[in-house]
Amino acid sequence: MAGNGSIKAHLFGELPLLALAMALGVASTAVAQGITTTRVPQSPANRTSIEPPVTFDVISIRKSKEPFPQGAAFTSSGFAIRGVPPLMLIGMAYDFRDFDRLKGLPNWCLSENYDIQAKVDDAVVDKWKALDFPSKLLALQALLASRFNLKAHREIKQGRVYELVIAKGGPKFKAAEAKDILSSESGDGRANYGQAETLDTLALSLPSLGISRPVVNKTELSGKYNLRLVLNPEADSSQPSASISEPQIIVALRDQLGLDLKPANGPIEILTIDHIDKPTDN
């Protein structure tokens, strides 16, 4: 599935769209082995069973005929996906953009695709529209619990990460202006644009582009910026995108954005799946 030319994504943005560029073949494999794992205390900030402010009233789930993920989005009254495997849905619901940090999933969660339509009750549509992104993710978590019988817990491992730092010569991007609206776009593997994006968001998204370790923002830049990263300038948009190697991505970050990736050790959050069932069509 990785590199399919029809897969377009919001690669940088914390938008209500699934980062479909996190194709199954580019999940990282660099989490260190044999290191002590610590279960995260179930505080309101990190437990996997926080009560969502709004839940879906009507949910339709069907096995998809789509061979590749086609899209996922929050709508004005709910949520919709087409051709998406549970792996991607769980990654979106729990904001894990690096699939290798999802542990314990059965094989069907990678190989079976689903179409899902979910809507809130008409009486709470305005409340739904006003929810922030994390609150809408809680509604997705509740959907997974009710229709997939999902049970999961978070853990912390010490392992290999990359630190996103300012490269020699300084940053090569501009601060976003007040008129700039948060948005991002993928150009079929050639150019990736992010407007009014934070570097925290860029760091979270880099594993979906092919970086083999979790990335932590250590730039100390906390503003919003307009970013443009060209990874494969000679790609033919009518053909499936060629894979981009990690060294190529690192060079592109350095040359185009004035950013670098520094190998380091650090905490890595893992989501372990304790139980999940196949949903029944309805």
Quick structural overview:
This protein is an alpha+beta fold. The protein has six helices and 13 strands. The protein starts with about 35 loop residues before the first strand and ends in a 7-residue tail after the last strand.
Explain what the structure shows:
By secondary structure, the chain is of the alpha+beta class. The protein folds into 2 domains: about 25-155, no CATH class; about 155-265, no CATH class. The protein is about 20% helix and about 30% strand. The chain has 6 helices and 13 strands. Strands 1, 5, 7, 11 and 13 form a 5-stranded mixed beta sheet that branches. Helix 1 (about 85-95) packs across helix 4. It is globular. Mean pLDDT is about 75; it is low at about 1-45 and about 235-240.
Secondary-structure topology with pairs:
Blueprint: E1 37-39, E2 58-63, E3 71-74, E4 78-84, H1 86-93, E5 102-103, H2 108-111, E6 114-119, H3 125-130, H4 133-147, E7 151-166, E8 174-175, E9 183-187, E10 191-198, H5 199-209, E11 215-217, E12 224-230, H6 246-257, E13 259-275
Helix pairs in contact: 1-4
Biggest β-sheet description = 5 strands, mixed
End-to-end gap: 27 Å
Q: How many domains comprise the coordinates?
A: 2
Q: Got a strand count? A: 13
What is the N-to-C succession of helices and strands? EEEEHEHEHHEEEEHEEHE
Percent in strands: 25-35%
Instruction: Assign a percent range to the helix content.
Output: 10-25%
Low-confidence stretches: 1-47, 236-241
Please state the CA-atom Rg, rounded to the nearest Å. Answer: 19 Å
Subunit organisation of the chains:
single chain
Structural class: alpha+beta
The number of helical elements comes to: 6
The overall pLDDT average reads 77
